[in-house]
Amino acid sequence: MLTDRDKVRYTRQILLPEIGGKGQERLKGSTVFIAGAGGLGSPVSVYLACAGVGHLVICDDGRVELSNLNRQFLHADSRQDMLKTESAAEILAALNPDVSLTLISRRLTEENAGELVGGADIIVDCLDNFETRYVVNRYAVKNSLPFIHAGIYGMSGQLSFFQPPETACLACIFPEAPPPEIFPVLGAPVGVIGSLEALEAVKYLTGCGTVLKNRLLIFNGEEARFDEVTISRDPACPVCGGLTRGTA
Ligand SMILES: [Zn+2]
Prior knowledge:
Blueprint: H1 4-9, H2 11-14, H3 20-28, E1 31-35, H4 41-51, E2 55-59, H5 84-95, E3 100-104, H6 113-117, E4 122-125, H7 130-142, E5 147-153, E6 156-162, H8 170-173, H9 187-206, E7 215-220, E8 225-230
Parallel strand pairs: 1-2, 1-4, 2-3, 4-5
Antiparallel strand pairs: 5-6, 6-7, 7-8
Helix pairs in contact: 4-5, 4-9
Bound molecules: zinc ion.
């Protein structure tokens, strides 16, 4: 149930007919697992905390570095070397003390995914490497959890919403990881993509709008252009290929 304070805090989004009081209650009752507290994790966790998602689980095993600060506004110059989860919690708790936070300063692996992701309603990809993305993807497919994927590079980025068997999964469209590298990245386009991830999560949790199922949205920041590619499941996908509609 929404408190009087909730009704005031979230007035402007409760005014959206698609959300309303019911949608706000759904947000309050939801748990979102945010995989990564860096560039994408900044807008995702800030907007979800502001929106009143009841429980955010922030998972990142890194510490704040000087070179993170051109894009990772969860963190601050004065918090270098602090665990990213703890640095993030300072901002998020100040923004909205009504949101409960679980901080996990561990790397997500095949072995601990069940323990760490637990009862989350949705997983949001704010990662910077494909190895962990594949771990999350396998866990999400196995447990029928929706997984919002995003990736960024330079001034560009992409995102999609995965929930096989209704949609493709990450491994259907990216069967192999690109070689790891220290890639270029500017802050503002990360904000564009992370904000869109937060929006997809809010839409999924409240049941409003249309989420990015079987569509890969691609943002070209250099040309200020959005493009879209229709994607579909690979029946031979080693992760989701065995699933059949209606039985997952
Ligand atoms: Zn697949």
